[in-house]
Write a structure and sequence with these properties.
Largest sheet: 4 strands, antiparallel
Shape: elongated
InterPro entries: DUF421 (IPR007353), UPF0702_alpha/beta_dom_sf (IPR023090)
Mean pLDDT: 84
Family: Belongs to the UPF0702 family.
Low-confidence stretches: none
Strand order of the largest sheet: 2-1-3-4
Subcellular location: Cell membrane
Distance between the termini: 99 Å
Structural class: alpha+beta
Organism: Tersicoccus phoenicis
Number of strands: 4
Protein name: DUF421 domain-containing protein
């Protein structure tokens, strides 16, 4: 029993190479198919993720069913992912082309209160998802949005038009100062 659990059944280098290659293929697939973030996944996206993990399992572990083989695959995946994330973070300002290749770029979906339908179709974003993003980012309607982008990480980032933005504490303090000056002027009369 311990023999089959602890003894690798394929060479360590092959296990690492299989894991790296599957990781790269999956990254390329996800980059090619879109940039929806984890928060924006729908039921179909979750089904694909669950099935995908099962589909590539044998490609990663091969005929190795040992505990050590599984641990090597897991460590390789986590280490590779950490390395890629650090590479993206380190190159962000210095190598924009590499960052864009690894991470992607943002796509404008709303401009001056108008939805860009072609971008929405290309990204696979439904109107209900966009309306939800507007509401969660302090808007009531798309017409209130100056600019809206789906960023490289898959988040919808919206900027309200200036006239639609809520008053800040500084705005209220400024109004209080103006009111105090008006009251002082009226008191002098």
């Amino acid at each position: 029993m311990w023999q089959s659990m602890l003894v690798e059944q394929i060479p360590l280098l092959e296990k690492i190479l299989r894991t790296v290659l599957v990781y790269v293929v999956i990254i390329v697939l996800f980059r090619a198919t879109g940039k929806r973030g984890m928060a924006a996944l729908n039921t179909f996206d979750f089904v694909v993720l669950f099935l995908l993990s099962n589909v590539v399992q044998n490609a990663i572990i091969g005929p190795d069913t040992s505990l050590v083989g599984g641990v090597v695959g897991a460590i390789t995946l986590v280490a590779l992912n950490t390395l890629i994330n650090r590479l993206i973070a380190d190159t962000a300002g210095r190598h924009p082309r590499l960052t864009r290749l690894l991470e992607g770029s943002s796509t404008t979906v709303i401009r001056d209160g108008r939805i860009i339908d072609a971008a929405m179709r290309r990204l696979g974003i439904r109107r209900s998802e966009l309306d939800h993003a507007v509401r969660t980012q302090n808007g009531d309607d798309v017409s209130e949005i100056a600019a809206g982008e789906l960023d490289a990480g898959g988040h919808l980032v919206l900027s309200l038009k200036p006239e639609e933005q809520s008053a800040t504490k500084a705005d209220i303090d400024d109004l209080r100062r103006q009111l105090a000056r008006l009251e002082a002027l009226l008191a002098k009369r």
